[in-house]
Design a protein that fits this description.
This protein is 42% helix and 24% strand. By secondary structure, it is of the alpha/beta class. It has one domain: Transcription Regulator spoIIAA (2-Layer Sandwich). Helix 2 links the parallel strand 3 and strand 4.
Length: 151
């Protein structure tokens, strides 16, 4: 399906949702859109929901290096702060990405549940869940409006 994000400047938090199959090129394109967005990041906190991303998703070392290069070219966009990733039991975050984020002052922790992630970020779990649900709905709407691809 893909990746969607939103920025809540009032609360200083950026939300992100990954769902379905996400390819490395999907991720690279998503990061390019984010760094071009004047509203992103919304502040020094980020909450990413990976609970519905498919096991069939594939992000390799080449895509990781592309994302690192994009962020490196935009140092002000990757501000010091906190990032919480809520993932399913089978998810593993690349050690390379953890190293990259820590070098830029960004603390990233992977959580197994939304409530704990929200507590760490200082967010209201109900408000965060509403934002995540809206993003999921937007992602579904956006992907269902795309024309089918040829085989």
């Amino acid at each position: 399906m893909g990746i969607a994000y939103s920025c809540d400047k009032d609360k200083g938090v950026s939300y992100e949702v990954w769902a379905g199959v996400v390819t490395g090129s999907d991720w690279v394109e998503h990061v390019r859109r984010q760094v071009a967005d004047r509203e992103w990041p919304a502040g020094d906190r980020s909450l990413t929901d990976l609970q519905l991303v498919s096991r069939n998703s594939s992000i390799g070392k080449a895509e990781m290096e592309q994302v690192v290069a994009i962020y490196r070219a935009q140092p002000k966009k990757l501000a010091a702060g906190k990032a919480a990733v809520v993932a399913g039991k089978d998810f593993r975050l690349s050690p390379l990405f953890r190293i990259f984020t820590s070098r830029h002052g960004f603390r990233l922790i992977v959580f197994s549940d939304m409530a704990t992630a929200c507590k760490w970020l200082g967010l209201d779990p109900k408000e965060a869940e509403r934002s995540i649900v809206r993003l999921r709905a937007r992602l579904v709407a956006e992907t269902s409006q795309q024309p089918p691809t040829s085989p």
